[in-house]
Write a structure and sequence with these properties.
The chain is an alpha/beta fold. It contains 13 helices and 10 strands. A 6-stranded parallel sheet has the order 4-3-2-5-6-7. It has a 4-stranded mixed sheet with strand order 1-10-9-8. Helix 3 links the parallel strand 5 and strand 6. Helix 3 runs parallel beside helix 4, helix 9 packs antiparallel against helix 10 and helix 12 crosses helix 13.
Length: 298
């Protein structure tokens, strides 16, 4: 089954059934996904490098990744980057992964992720790279799009988990393909928000009311999931992170390296990446809407 996609139909997806679920990583996205699962009756065992981020989650907390592995059949990872994933995997594979399934929601480096498949397979486990499209709000509603690469058997086993978190799931058997698609998606995401931000900044300079501008764009060329998700943030100048500048820049760096190795120039996104680099220098932890502030001040 090289390619398969489905719209999720909400029925009998909740509670996890007999699945013993472990979870590693509770950043902004990971925490929103956990809250979704908790609200639907799942009872994951959770570890996070910074325990304070778990203080307002009513979850059973593990003392280390090894405990999560020992007590779980399925272990989900939602980490910042491939370096963090490799660090955790190196700890886990040393304990043996026989019969275990690792579901990695991290947006990974396009080459590193292929080696993760190999690492887990050599330890007799199954690895599913499962990057998601969408950030905190769709995660909290179970409306993510999930891209999955790996073996079909483990994929079928964890489908109830994926269907509780996502509204649409794409499955590819080829290792690395899901991650490459995620990076292509984020080319569009980062580029679209930058162009939208430039349009709003120009309209403001021309004396247009911001709310009026957004209303017009929402009913014209700007109509999109991106504007729908960011409209309130534009209006309120709210830069609290749904998807941080740090994460966007990391993904665009991965993307640029992938394009370079493919011999494909990316002149448009290369310029936009520098705008995000400027936003990163201001505050890497703010929402990537911070690129709007950069453009307003040019």
């Amino acid at each position: 089954m090289p390619f398969w996609a489905c719209e999720v139909k909400r029925k009998n997806l909740c509670g996890g059934g007999d699945m013993k679920l472990g979870w590693i990583g509770a950043g902004s996205l990971g925490k929103a996904m956990l809250e979704r699962l908790l609200g639907e009756g799942w009872k994951p065992l959770v570890w996070n490098r910074t325990p304070e981020k778990l203080k307002d989650l009513k979850v059973e907390k593990a003392s280390c990744p090894e405990e999560v592995l020992r007590e779980s059949e399925v272990v989900a990872l939602c980490l910042h980057d491939s370096s963090a994933v490799r660090e955790v995997l190196e700890r886990l594979v040393g304990k043996g992964l026989h019969g275990k399934i690792l579901v990695d929601f991290t947006t990974n480096h396009f080459e590193e992720v292929v080696s993760f498949h190999e690492m887990v397979s050599h330890a007799e486990g199954s690895y599913l790279e499962s990057p998601v499209l969408g950030s905190v709000i769709p995660a909290s509603r179970g409306e993510l799009t999930i891209l999955v690469s790996g073996e079909e058997g483990p994929f079928r086993r964890v489908q109830p988990l994926l269907e509780c978190l996502g509204r649409k799931i794409f499955f590819f058997s080829e290792p690395g393909k899901a991650s490459r698609f995620k990076l292509v998606n984020n080319l569009v995401l980062g580029g679209f928000l930058a162009v939208l931000s430039e349009a709003v900044a120009l309209a403001e300079e021309l004396g247009f009311d911001r709310s009026e501008t957004l209303e017009v764009l929402e009913n014209g060329a700007g109509r999109s999931l991106v504007l729908s998700a960011k409209k309130a943030k534009f209006l309120n100048e709210d830069f609290s992170p749904h998807f941080s500048v740090k994460n966007m820049l990391k993904d665009l760096d991965y993307l640029s390296e992938m394009a370079r190795k493919a011999g494909k120039p990316l002149p448009i996104i290369s310029e936009i990446r520098e705008l995000y680099r400027s936003a990163f220098r201001r505050d890497p932890e703010k929402d990537f809407l911070l690129v709007w502030k950069v453009l307003r001040e040019l």
